[in-house]
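Bumping with the actual sequence this time:
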Amino acid sequence: MAITLHTDTVELPEQTDLVVGRHRDEFQQDTDGDVLILKGNTASAGWPESDPTKLFHRYVVDADDATEMKSVIRRACTLHKVEAVFYKDAKTEAGHVSIKFHVARKLDKDNKPVTDASLDADGKPTKAMLDEIKALKESRKS
């Protein structure tokens, strides 16, 4: 999509109000947790290349919600400093869409992993991250 910038010298309206950040509702927080668990499992396995039979997560949503769900996933990945790598969407017999993805380390402009306090120097999860995942799993049981 091409974007046209306008440089005409016209009177512009005053803009003084800041945009309020987006709230992380319960659904976003649940997705954040799913991505954290997937990140922990992937990091513990040494960040292997994608394998469609291992280390992935899947959501099944209405077809109209697929794009928005991918945005929620990307937002969770940004929080946890990973990149979502999506598989091709699949449609179910009921007309829903299956969104399947795994996570990869987020890289900086020099193609090096970004600094992430939840990982040690070898890219393995820290004790704090493992404790957070354990607490999350326990809270979901109740």
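The tokens above came from a reply further down the thread. Helices lie at 26-44, 66-79, 127-141.
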